[in-house]
Amino acid sequence: MTRVIGIMSGKGGVGKTTVTANLAVCLAQLGKEVIIVDCNISTSHLALYFGIHDYSVTINDVLKGKYEIYDAIYEHKSGVKIIPASLSSHSMIGVDIVNLRKKIKDVLGMADFVLLDSAPGFGRETMGTLLASSEVLLVANPNFMSVVDVMRVKDVLNEYNVKLTGLVVNMYKKKYRMKIEEIEEMCDIPILSVIPHDDEVARSLFFKIPVVLLNPNASSSKKFKELAKKLCGIEEEERSIIDKIARFLLRLE
Ligand SMILES: Nc1ncnc2c1ncn2[C@@H]1O[C@H](COP(=O)(O)OP(=O)(O)OP(=O)(O)O)[C@@H](O)[C@H]1O
Ligand SMILES: [Mg+2]
């Protein structure tokens, strides 16, 4: 069954688009079919993170009913299928993001994962994304304001009965930040991944190549790969095999 995962945060600029792009590539590298959708209609960037800008049909056209969602799919060489939003502010006129849920239904069955890159805040775009999601992955930075905002999103998810898969703490650094235990205690959301603040991410943005492709050995890339495995349940499988081997070897001693 296709998992439709909203990537959300409340606060802006915490790394939702970065997580969406890199997670998508890692899932594709694990052999999964992945579609990502730019649901940040007012300030769309997702396709640009892949260096794609010359697209004619966008999610805006699909939401307006001018095109089918299949017409707005662009395949990146990583295998990730991208549904961009228009870069033109004029194209926002007449777009109703609340139609997203209905449109996404058309690609269910075409992919293992559909990742929805949300807008920040709690406006109509965010609510349309939330209602189209079967589960949500929250992204926060290790600071008080960002954590407060994911707590707000958590409340809204509860209200709408949308499953909360977990929290990604992004841009973790050595100084002037909340500790992981403090974040966990404060928001009571399972932390799936802690991604370090990594200058390679800025370099990847400059070259418009997701960091996991530009530098697979970067500290952030390793964490994105781990997160993808976790979402696929691969890590637990590997762990249990290692545990079984360890138990067997202990018995031999
Ligand atoms: N782990 C990281 N290390 C260093 N820089 C990062 C990291 N993650 C994201 N960034 C940088 O932070 C900035 C914001 O990231 P991004 O655009 O992904 O955030 P966003 O949550 O999608 O923002 P918005 O709410 O505006 O959509 C970008 O310049 C990005 O390169
Ligand atoms: Mg974004």
Structure description:
The structure is a single chain. The chain has one domain (3-252): Rossmann fold (3-Layer(aba) Sandwich), CATH 3.40.50. Helix content is 41%, strand content 17%. It contains ten helices and eight strands. The chain has helices at residues 16-29, 59-63, 100-104, 124-132, 144-159, 180-187, 199-207, 211-214, 219-232, 234-252; strands at 3-8, 34-38, 74-75, 81-83, 113-117, 135-140, 163-172, 191-196. Strand 6 (135-140), helix 5 (144-159) and strand 7 form a beta-alpha-beta unit. Helix 1 packs across helix 9 (219-232). The site of adenosine-5'-triphosphate has 20 residues, from helix 1, strand 7 and helix 7. Residues 9, 12-18, 40, 43, 120, 170-171, 195, 197-198, 201-202, 205, 220 line the site of adenosine-5'-triphosphate.
